[in-house]
Amino acid sequence: MALASNSHRATIESKISYQHGWNESFSVIVGSDEVRTGKPSPDIFLEAAKRLNMEPSSSLVIEDSVIGVVAGKAAGMEVVAVPSLPKQTHRYTAADEVINSLLDLRPEKWGLPPFQDWIEGTLPSEPWYIGGPVVKGLGRGSKVLGIPTANLSTEGYSDVLSEHPSGVYFGWAGLSTRGVYKMVMSIGWNPYFDNAEKTIEPWLLHEFDEDFYDEELHLVIVGYIRPEANFPSLETLIAKIHEDRKVAERALDLPLYSKYRDDPYLKITSSKGQ
Ligand code: ADP
Ligand code: RBF
Ligand code: MG
Fold first, then answer.
1. In its keyword annotation, does this UniProt entry include Flavoprotein (predicted)?
2. What b/e readout covers 176-214, taking b as 16+ CB neighbours within 10 angstroms?
3. Mean pLDDT score of the chain, rounded to an integer?
4. So what's the pLDDT on residue 214?
5. Domain boundaries of the chain, sorted by first residue
């Protein structure tokens, strides 16, 4: 595994020195000051493959920049693009695959060993916390999909939300006066509806006989399921969300996830997460 960047070698080394274990993760590091021309020229990637003793054609490039994708293809390599900005995927069409975040990288698609941290269709994460009063959404969940989602305001959560890519997540939901429930949610722009605003949409896996707008809802998010996607029809979107529900319901019974049911954040009634 090599790190091949348009930054200068010294800058790369200084930058990764802040991340424990990163330097040791790469057997080769190439900076643009070590080759004739930087990206979009293929030089950096060809030099990296050479030092790895690999053929360019059996190398996989993972890139967040458009010029890097161009460089990787010019080097005769396969390229997975992870665009650094949302809604920019159209600029990356030269890549062999465009994914939404590194959570969606599947090494086995490229003849590499799969990641081993996925468990029953879910990727565990350190828990993260969001909460606040339930707000009105676009009024679509129950009406159009038959799937109510207790929307939270994204205000005040720009830090947490920028740390976590859009996608389908799951965890536990605490409602101040009612209890703790299993929960599956989407965070993002709902590609099927192409929303202008990012929304947080938790579906509590419980039948309630009334609405609970304005009630305090606290979420402990414990894992990831899949990227948000577009669908050919409403029926296929609905079917996929029901599949997500099953995945979440099963996973939350695993000790790894069920232990967070007792997180104090789900029980107390302060108004903000961290
Ligand atoms: P909105 O667009 O306003 O979010 P929805 O059609 O998505 O409207 O309905 C969400 C509302 O339905 C929630 O705010 C909540 O008050 C209520 N609700 C009832 N059952 C559930 C449930 N199981 N999960 C989430 N919300 C539910
Ligand atoms: N919307 C999408 O456009 N694409 C998705 O892949 C998607 N996945 C979802 C998964 C779950 C578990 C939930 C609860 C919602 C998902 N939605 C998705 C959001 C759905 O479109 C949204 O809740 C409704 O539009 C209500 O605003
Ligand atoms: Mg909703």
1. yes
2. beeebbbbbbbbbbbbbeeeeeebbbbbbbeeeeeebee
3. 94
4. 95
5. 2-110, 123-266
